[in-house]
Automatic annotation (TrEMBL):
InterPro entries documented for this protein: Cys-rich_GLG1_repeat, Cys-rich_GLG1_repeat_euk, GLG1
Localisation: Membrane
GO cellular component, one term: Golgi membrane
Superkingdom per UniProt: Eukaryota
PANTHER family, alphabetized: GOLGI APPARATUS PROTEIN 1 (PTHR11884:SF1), SELECTIN LIGAND RELATED (PTHR11884)
Keyword Transmembrane helix carried by entry: yes
Native source species: Clytia hemisphaerica
Coiled coil: 601-635
Signal peptide annotation: 1-33
Name listed for the protein in its UniProt record: Golgi apparatus protein 1
Membrane topology: Single-pass type I membrane protein
Keyword Cell membrane (UniProt): no
Keywords: Coiled coil, Glycoprotein, Membrane, Repeat, Signal, Transmembrane, Transmembrane helix
Amino acid sequence: MADCSCGKMSGTRRNFVFVIFAVVLFNLCLVNGKSIPKKGEEEQRYILSKDPTCARDVENHCSKVPRKDNNFAVFVCMQEALYRDDDDISEECHQTMWHYKFNLTSDMKFDEAATQICETSIPKVKECANPKLRDTKGFLMNCMVENRHEVEDTKCKGFLNKMAAIIFSDYRLIKGFYDDCHKDITTMKCAIITRPDDDEATESHEQSEVVSCLESRFEEIKNEKCQQAVLKVSELQSDDYHMDRPLFYACQNAREIFCKTVQSGEGRIYECLLKHSQEESMDHACAIKLLARSKMMQKDIKINYPLWKACEADYKKYDCEKERKEIKNPSEHGEGSLLLMCLTKHQAEGNPIEPDCANEMRSFAMLIFEQYQVSPLVVGKCDKEIHEHCKTLIGKEKDDGGMMDCLMGLAAKENSGMSEQCFTAITEVLKETGAGDNYKVDRGLEVACQSTIAQLCEGKQDSMILSCLMENTHNPKMDPSCREQVFHLQFFLARDFRLDSALYRDCKDDAKTICHATDWGNEKESTMPDNFVISCLYRNAILHDNPAHKTVFDKNRIPKVSDVCASHVKRVMHQRATDIRLMPEIEKPCMADLGKFCTDRHEEGEEIDCLQEHLEELQNKCQEAIKTFTKMEAKDFDLDKHLVDKCGAMVTKFCPNELQDKDGEQILPCLISHKNDIEMNAECTTALEHWQLIEMKDIEFSPRLKDACMDDAMKLCKDAKSKYQAVRCLSQKMVEDHTKVSSQCKLQIRKELTIQSENIKLNPEMFHACQDDIKEHCHGIPPGGAQIEECLRRNFPKLKSAACKKALFKQEEMESKDNGMDYRLMQICKPMIKKYCQPLVSTGDTTAIMECLRSFTHDTDMSKECKAIVFERQKEQAESFALDPELSSFCDSDVKRHCSREMKEAQKSYDQGHTDEGLVFGCLVDVLIGKKNRLQPSCEQYVRRREHEAALELELNPQFLEHCRDEVFRLCGKTPPEEVIDCMKMNIPKIKGTQCVEEVRKLIAEGIEDVHVDPFLEETCARDINRYCKDLPKKSGNVVYCLIDVHKAKNLHLDPDCDNFIAKRIQLYKDANVNFDSVSSVMVAIAESPHRNYIYMTIMIFLAVLFLGGTLFGRVTKRALAEQKNR
């Protein structure tokens, strides 16, 4: 049985109403079309239960009605039987009941009853108080029923509700409904239309299904008056679901299951049933009726009684009706959606909305999302997409948000073919429902993310859940289905900043001022696409964060993004950085390039990496978009999700200060400086190396370099296209003339060169030139830590590529001039540098680190690793004059004076990527031991020191190795390395190669000239040198000549070992044909003497006397001969 309660009326008042009904029914003897008896005629009370046409039916169906003389009670009972589809009610009884209702609701006496019961309420209902219409048959009753929501009197409202149950059971009883809608009803076959006096009136009087039919096919109604009539009926039914009899009966079970404790009235039952309309246990018939009812709410907002009641004040407060009229084609949206759009806009702008209204808005928004058919926009604009891609969801009464998710997912697919109008429609639905702020609006998302929310977002308020989910899309703990749902929503949020109400509220003014963005609904005013607004605000925010740019902004009067807006924008940009599809400012211009270069790169963040790797090959618009994004990445570590994922823990470990200061621009340099630390994660190292490679493509990708050197680069290196080229160019300018480059730029260039030297990939010129040699000699060696470069240096003679050798030599030359750029040396010898070269470290002077370290190579405390790398650098210096900056500095003038030919040959070698194999140094040694010319003291001192080192280490004498390698192997192959040189000296008669003989003779001569170059002699005769020769200079052969003189002297004696060794050396000198006692040696000795001026003067006087004497005696002799001849 139906629930016939009348709101909250007490039993007494309810009985009173029934009494009135009884009076009315007594005075209305209405049966089978007969009119009321006239005056004078016998009045006989009509009893429906005794009517011959219905008596049997009443007995069958209403036996439990206590008072059969109560016509109204009997009528209600019979009507319930009809709703139960009891087919055994006779046709005659159907007709009798129809006439009973018709006459009951149209007779003037019925209006009189309404006047009597609602006497105090009628004047308050403006529409019904019109005296001109009061006399119209049936007007008052229908009018009061239609406006019963304005009635406050309980007795009157109860009466009207009872009458409404009768009126709404048959469309023909509703005022004006028959006249306005009969054509549409017939056309749409919603019923066989008849008047009550028609002979063919054989159909059931229960025709509320006709109204339901018209509601479900509302769009097909052609008569505007009929449309208004249908809306009016639905509106009148909105507060009590009893008035919608088909829905009432279809949803009886559903009410018992879902809304048993919900009190009827004020639309509460409707609202409860709608909330549960997607439940599995919801009756199919009820779900269909609820859907039809929901669609009608979009035609007339008042049909949604709870929403209108809660929001009417705010609707009028913000003049939403005016805004509605300003919208083109408002019917495309739906009246309910327009209300949401208006109030959501004001809510987003920070204007207050009543809590009850906000709750009802949320409920209606969820309804729109769950039932796509409730949104005229989606149905009208996405019909093609729905039928082609989501057809399996068509017609489902329990959509549960599936269609919206299908369409949103379709939009996010590449080349989906979604029309712009459909995309715009979905965007509008998201905007009006506020789905970008409340995750519960999207039921599909809420269900898919329940477990994820419990794991990752526990304790967060509902308003923060979506943000939490977006921040965790890369988290492995997130459920894949949740990730997909969140992505679908993010895809749209990324394309219209207004969909995020918090972002819109705090950034709308900045967006309009700085980025010329549109207001909520004024798209025509915008000069920037909505999908570019966020990136525009973000660029402004991060540039303002940099003090270096603040002056420029102030000078040009560019406004600064507010702090609260900057915070929102950074949050959104960080969330979007997980997928290129969430960055329309990149995806749109780069679509073609993505297809060309990145078809196999689908992992998170890979597509951006791919485009960055192919930067030079991209189309212009795409290239500019990627450049812009990469510049922002360089200033904000959190924008690079690949780096965040791989290096998040390392930031905490190595860069806590930068993290605490939220200095995103300094985090990357900090991590790079720790890239090769033992505790650094390998995945982070790889990610950092990838970033460094990208950074090399443009100077603007390196904020520090840009700030320090951009002016210098624009002035001195205009042709430089990449960061690498700019750094190389500026470093070359520094070498040519250090005054050309600003001091701050010079400092930064040195840092950049040091960073580049760490990984050969950061030196694209050398990396590309050396590919083949790397494969052959350095396969499997990681590029980091300058390991591949070191491998190539050790295999320099074996390298096949001239371009590789040239590039490598260029790098070696740069590092030799500033050892701080020699990453391998600085890293391996870091503790030793701190120990032995602290003064240099404290002053920041790294140019002489190598010179410092080589002085301690024989120290037992020096690590083996550092000794080894220092020795490698010594070998390189020995092989090339250009790689020994000390030699170049001390001997530059001597090289020009004595070794110009060798220097020209060396330069040719350098140009071809070869070393000079010690040619220039060998020339200086020849000058030193030749005695014909003198070297500058500083040069001579340095050459001698290099000779000493070469005497101890065979590999530091490249000339000797070049000419004697085979002979060494043949004659001294089994000799310990430190004795090889001495072995070769002793075997000079056996040496076959002429050039090798010359090299050995040279070594012997060097040993005579400087005893330090003959370490075995020096060591064997150390005591005798100290005894007999300690006051003599250790050069120009003084010590060796001294020992030979003592050896020959009869009154002086050398130690037996030394004496024996000197004897062997004398024989060696003779075998090698080395002049060890020549005049030149005497002259050199004189030159070294402190009394050399006196000696020179004596010699000159002697020679002058000799010359004069010769001249004098020559003439005397000539005269004597002439006289003798004449005789």
